[in-house]
Design a protein that fits this description.
The chain is mainly α and about 140 residues long. It contains five helices and two strands; from the N terminus they run H-H-E-E-H-H-H. The chain is elongated. The N terminus is likely disordered.
């Protein structure tokens, strides 16, 4: 039987709100799991911090540069169907990876990186924006026909 903590003493007071809103409520942490809080160095030093011998952050930079390029192209031609669908699919891919990395951080590393949390929130906002832009331009396109 796993005992659940009724209060969290392993997290600094300022990280409790971030952790509660990130993925899992803090009270659901099993007692035998030592959660060390917001420690980017612990996350970066973990064996999960590299994919094909490159730091995960490099993939994040490429992701954001590509999304910036898609946004610039969509600003130039907002009704381009391929660009709109590409932005939604690429943003959804980013959310998938962000969710995977959050699961790794909580489930295996037992620490969160604040930059990873900010990136995950930004990726979700990009996805919401891409889907909204797709819906709005579809409505505009159908209204113009």
């Amino acid at each position: 039987m796993v005992m659940l903590k009724s209060s969290v003493t392993v997290l600094p007071h300022w990280s409790r709100a971030v952790t509660r809103t990130a993925v899992v409520p803090v009270t659901a942490v099993p007692e035998n799991v030592r959660f060390s809080g917001l420690k980017c160095s612990q996350v970066a030093a973990s064996p999960y911090a590299h994919i094909f011998d490159l730091p995960v952050g490099y993939y994040g930079v490429v992701y954001y540069l590509y999304m910036f390029g898609l946004a610039a192209l969509l600003a130039y031609d907002p009704l381009a169907r391929g660009l709109r669908i590409g932005a939604v699919l690429y943003a959804a891919l980013g959310v998938s990876f962000s969710l995977y990395f959050m699961v790794l951080q909580f489930g295996y590393i037992h620490a969160f990186c604040i930059y990873c949390l900010i990136s995950a929130v930004t990726t979700v906002l990009l996805t919401v924006t891409a889907v909204s832009q797709l819906k709005v331009t579809q409505a505009l396109r159908s209204a113009w026909k």
